[in-house]
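HUMAN: Quick job: go over this next protein and say how the chain folds.
***
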Amino acid sequence: MQAIKDKKWPVVCALMVFVIGSLVGGLGTRLYDRRHPQMSPPPGVAIEKAMKNMQLNADQQAKVKSIIEDTRNQLRDVRRDSQPKVMAIRRHSREQMQGVLTPEQMRTLEEEMRRQGYHPSDYRQER
């Protein structure tokens, strides 16, 4: 009887390690996903995938690709042209915040913004 218990012990230990590992891995993945949300693919990638599923003929493909390229160029130009105004608005916002928040609160805000992908220098100077 003791020999059977001795043989089962390693199996029970291995099973416990597996279960605990699965739980910790699942929890770790969930925490990671909360802190690092997945970004959606760029619009062009989604459209290209859709195009494959729509079974477009060669003429349609060429026209759709031309539309996509034209749209990208227009949006790039709008972003470039609006960038100075966006930066001015951000700087003004930061100046207003500095008038309301304490230096410690301002540091906390900047740290949180860094975690979310923004950089305080975005609000201080033109690129």
In short: DSSP finds four helices and no strands in the chain.
